[in-house]
């Protein structure tokens, strides 16, 4: 790989990281999966990982999941 290709890759990676908005109160998502995917992308973009810690179910299904 030549240096110009490497520079282009660095720019593309940086662009994808900065395009993710910081989490804020009041954000809404269509599904739980959309919210999790957003948070995983955000976390990876700024340098930390996320794992599922606890999930809670009731008779209607999943109602709470904790990410750590």
Low-confidence stretches: 3-17
- Taking all Cα atoms into account, the compactness measure Rg is 17 Å
Q: For the terminal residues, how far apart are their CA atoms?
A: 38 Å
Helix content: 40-55%
Order of helices and strands: HHEE
Apparent shape:
globular
Percent in strands: 15-25%
For the largest beta sheet, what order do the strands appear in spatially? 1-2
Q: How many DSSP E strands?
A: 2
Oligomer: single chain
The number of distinct helices, counting runs of at least 4 residues, comes to 2
Integer count of domains: 1
Describe the main β-sheet briefly: 2 strands, antiparallel
Q: How does the helix and strand content classify structurally?
A: alpha+beta
Mean pLDDT: 74
Question: What's the topology here?
Answer:
Elements: H1 3-18, H2 32-46, E1 52-58, E2 61-67
Antiparallel strand pairs: 1-2
Protein name: FAR1 domain-containing protein
Key traits:
alpha+beta; 2 helices; 2 strands; 46% helix; 21% strand; disordered N terminus
Describe the protein's architecture and organization.
By secondary structure, the protein is of the alpha+beta class. The chain has one domain. The chain is 46% helix and 21% strand. The protein contains 2 helices and 2 strands. It has helices at residues 3-18, 32-46; strands at 52-58, 61-67. It has a two-stranded antiparallel sheet with strand order 1-2. The radius of gyration is 17 Å and the shape is globular.
